Amino acid sequence: MTTMPYVLWLDDPTSVGNPLLGGKFASLAEMVGAGLSVPHGFGITTAAYRYFMAASGLVDEARRVREIAPKLALHEIKEEATALVNGIKTAPLPADLEDEIRKNYALLETRTQRQGVPVAVRSSGESEDLAGASFAGQYETFLWICGIDEVLRNMRACWAGMFGDAVLSYRQDGETVISKGDFGICVGVQQMLEARAAGVMFTLDPINGDRSKIVLEACWGLGEGVVKGDITPSQFAVDKVTFEITRKKPVTQLEEYRFDPSLGGVGLTPIEQDRQDKLCLDDDHVVRLATLAKQIEVARGAPQDIEWGVSHQGDICVLQVRPETVWSRKAAARVVSAQASPVNQVLARLSGIRVSQPVAKSANS
């Protein structure tokens, strides 16, 4: 049995840059280590994932699926992976692993002083660390998950997402990423920020690569609409040296993503009329966010793609950090699919490119 930890907290000094947390969560641990505001959370490590796969007898089937997937069409990949995905979702968890996760969720409840604290359950893959890879939108994320039983269920869904058709068919430089190694996955469990406003920002202009600018997209409520591309956000550009706001592009926003009690989860809810035409960020928050973005870029030594949120009290939190890869690797296409990555959704909006809609997509695709 492995001696590597099954759970690591973001504020554990050993978490900074730790590969057991995968790309996204290791980056968040760096932000915590740098003293930035990040919601409380812990990672169910890649060691936990590998322990489960070995204990459940699924390692050989996972290897078979990885080997055959590059030769198959998308619908064939899904068929080949069905038995594996079902096994990941239903095989018994090792008792010591389940106990460790339950214990740490209870600790999160204590630290947040909130029973059944709502969390985001996010995939954080080792393959995200490959140079130039941009897995945004390929792995699973589940919002406003309450209670340990639901956390465990959605953790399994994140593990199973490693073998979804989007991940198994993802290519970099013409080669499927899964052919580059046996990658594990961490599952991040992080307190939900009840955001007044949220969005993404880039430490360059994603349209022309201008590194003297910081570009922000923002919306009322949770940032899910910006990431998914189904809410048109307000846009801001800031000079990286003077922090002068050089562009504002406000939009009317009729709906926002937030917790909807009638759904028991996150959904689109109407915005009161007096907020619909009002900018979700004032100038002070725009400049503070741009200052934060520059700080992160300097610390990480390269342009960054950052998800952020602003609480109802006006506090800024960092939610995700990853290297910007789109500008350096390919030009924006004329038409961007609605299933493209969140970064390409932003490129489409900034360029005025039409976003094509898929014919149909099942809830489990």
In words, what does this structure look like?
It is a single chain. The protein is an alpha+beta fold. It folds into two domains: 7-191, ATP-grasp fold, A domain (Dna Ligase, domain 1); 195-356, D-amino Acid Aminotransferase, Chain A, domain 1, CATH 3.30.470. 35% of the residues lie in helices and 24% in strands. The protein contains twelve helices and 17 strands. The chain has helices at residues 22-33, 46-55, 59-68, 74-90, 95-112, 148-161, 165-168, 224-228, 273-276, 283-300, 326-329, 342-351, and strands at residues 7-9, 41-44, 119-125, 141-145, 171-172, 175-176, 185-191, 195-202, 213-220, 234-239, 245-249, 255-260, 265-270, 304-311, 316-323, 336-337, 355-356. A six-stranded antiparallel β-sheet has the order 11-10-9-8-14-15, with helices on both faces. Strands 1-2-7-3-4 form a five-stranded antiparallel β-sheet. A two-stranded antiparallel sheet has the order 5-6. Helix 3 runs antiparallel to helix 4 (74-90) and helix 4 packs antiparallel against helix 6. The two termini are 34 Å apart. The relative contact order is 0.13.
